[in-house]
């Protein structure tokens, strides 16, 4: 029996990635990282800033996401996100920019607790990448 | 009858207009292709988003405590209409169609005694609406500087709308835009985004989901995003429609200019011949009288 399932990542502009030989995906869900294997129960959750890791037959891919929703249903994993970057293609300067934006946001005086938490999370993840 | 010189000038002017419309048509055609592509590429996102929300709202346990963005504020008194038009003219009936649709909706609301507030996106809509509904327009947003429709802009509009909703400035929000069908046909649409219409339950699934964290929290996080997504979809459809409308309008203009040039050229040649004949007659009759 094959251990593979399908993943589709879409952002508002286009379908970002589509693969059907995925064996495991690790997503940074809001309440902690979550590994998804084939025949996982149907689930909807949303993402916090972090790294999506996709293990497939053709290798391992890593993406940085800032937000998004994951839906897993009948062995189809859909990830909806408005900001996603492939770690292989992302440039150092872009990373710096993202850190700067997140830091600015985190230092705003009127920020809500949740947004502050998210912004700090962004900074933390981005710094480990750097 | 106009003199030969005048005719000549008119022919040149019509010809140069034709050149411009032809160039605009080509540009619109190129842009249309890109806009159409991005409209098609953007569809999976909004469809998926819709699906997830449908599944969520079916699974929600406590309907009375559902987020307000989904269930509405409980009143239907104040309507917010977001009229999305282009920033540029010369695109045929594109803007006029949206305005017409919006105005008939406004009239209906007025008959029902509802209060109306308008947000215009795009300067053309603002220009056309401010004469009749100037006091109703509460905000005018324009993205003249953005080259293409992008999610960032849509998110900005979405945030403005949500902010107003949270301040209870309106109860129901409808967006007006043109849906792109093909180059000749664009269908003006009125779509209600707050509260969300979950009536079209065609692809309703019986699947039960596990939610993490709970439904309410996901919905609270998701619904604002959905607003932005819907607006982004409308923007994409709009930009494809705009280019399509401009292309066919410019095509028509080029053809009309061609017809006009033909007509004027015939007139020019006729009057030139008439002038020659007249001169000949004068010479001959002069010679005869000698």
Structure write-up:
The complex is a heterodimer of chains A (130) and B (290). With 130 residues, chain A is α+β, with helices and mostly antiparallel strands. Chain A has two domains: 5-86, F0F1 ATP synthase delta/epsilon subunit, N-terminal (ATP Synthase, domain 1, Sandwich); 92-129, no CATH class. Chain A has two helices and nine strands. In chain A, strand 1 and strand 2 form a beta hairpin. In chain A, helix 1 (92-106) packs antiparallel against helix 2. The longest helix of chain A is centred in the last third of the chain and has 17 residues, at 113-129. Chain A starts with a strand and ends with a helix. In chain B, helix 1 runs antiparallel to helix 6 and helix 3 packs parallel to helix 4 (123-133). In chain B, 62% of the residues lie in helices and 14% in strands. Chain B has helices spanning 4-59, 68-71, 94-111, 123-133, 151-166, 215-289; strands spanning 78-84, 115-121, 137-141, 172-180, 186-194, 210-212. Chain B has a five-stranded mixed sheet, with helices on both faces. The two termini of chain B are 33 Å apart. With 290 residues, chain B is an alpha/beta fold. The mean pLDDT of chain B is 86. Chain B has a single domain (22-249), classed as Pyruvate Kinase, Chain: A, domain 1, CATH 3.40.1380. Chain B is built from six helices and six strands, in the order ααβαβαβαβββα. Chains A and B meet through strand 4 and strand 7 of A and helix 1, helix 5, strand 6 and helix 6 of B. Strand 4 of chain A pairs parallel with strand 6 (210-212) of chain B, so a sheet runs across the interface.
